[in-house]
Amino acid sequence: MSVVPRDDSLPPNEDVGPISFSLALALTIFLVITTGLRLWARSANRKLGWDDLTIALAGATAIIRFAFVVLQWKRGNGRHRVYLSDHDYMIINMYGWWGQMLLFISVAFLKVSICLLILRIKDSKVLKCLLHVIMAGVLITNFGVVIILIAECQPIGFWRGKSAVCWPTHIRIYFIYATIAYSVLTDLICSLLPLVVIWNVKIPRRTKISVCCLMGLGLVATGFGVARAASLGISTSDLSWAYCIAGIWSNLELFLGIIAANLALSRSIYVYFLGNGDAQQTLPGSTGRCDPLQSGYLDSNLRGDRFEVPSTMIGSPRRRGSETRSSDSDILLKLGIQKKTEFWWTEDDEGQPQKQSP
């Protein structure tokens, strides 16, 4: 019996496509659950903000990206080029092109959402300037990659091969390297900033530690971003294999980043769904089952002969919670209009008390 000699010039017939699909599926499930709970709790308490809108956009684009992961996997993505037909290889690269655009768009929304969330906790002038600079850089770098992906070939799409006239490949790849480097830097800043911001807010120490730990999960995403950069190369001869591995790191970075941003509000979500009715807010802009207008306090001191009740107020959902309050100011604002009435007691010359009102 003759033995067919093995061609050592060919790469092994391996397939990492199932790993890419299974991991992306698990991450997508966690993303949908955490994002849904966050938006549900915030919406029910009338606390939706721009950070929630941008995280919803990040989640939506990430889910669409997962759909392209599925389409690529069905075509054989994760295998080496030599084991695929020309048509399947072209379709895989086309889906990958869409997936790359969705990746950078989603990352941009994610980073902006994290910055806006930090500003809801504390919005000092210095912090606001710093985070606005970070957000501007995030939008420029990530959408810059999107523009390059669209403009680098005529007609659009590098997957068309010789039928398209394209810029040199290294332009796109080096710009992606620069974007990843900036993304890693912003991950570090946005993960470490809560250590400074939260620690100066007057909330329980246990809450500070838990929030900082959850925001620190962003450092894990930073590590995956570094791994993504290391897996990229300037060679484009075996994209079905190389880009599938890079896509695994990209999905870990993106999906875990969104999940970590949602888990940073896990205490608020827990209070809303499982807490008691008297639960109070732990962070400005956080949620709970309590009335959304119960975020302010009025002085209720009894001074001498003067009786004072809360003044007439109209509550507003936009009212921001105070970071400090006195220990004796425990009358919560109620929904509706409250009236302030003051009385003074005086005595006439005969010692008879008289009631006066304004």
UniProtKB/TrEMBL annotation:
Main location: membrane
Superkingdom assignment: Eukaryota
Annotated membrane topology: Multi-pass membrane protein
Presence of keyword Transmembrane helix: yes
Keyword Transmembrane: yes
Residue ranges of the TM segments: 20-41, 53-73, 97-119, 131-151, 171-199, 211-234, 240-265
Keywords per UniProt: Membrane, Transmembrane, Transmembrane helix
InterPro entries tied to this protein: Rhodopsin_dom_fungi, SAT4-like
Subcellular location: Membrane
Extent of the signal sequence: none
One family name in Pfam for this protein: Fung_rhodopsin
Domain Rhodopsin: residue ranges: 37-269
Cellular component GO terms, alphabetical: membrane
PANTHER family membership: INTEGRAL MEMBRANE PROTEIN (PTHR33048:SF96), PTH11-LIKE INTEGRAL MEMBRANE PROTEIN (AFU_ORTHOLOGUE AFUA_5G11245) (PTHR33048)
Family: Belongs to the SAT4 family.
Stated name of the protein: Integral membrane protein
Organism expressing this protein natively: Glomerella acutata (Colletotrichum acutatum)
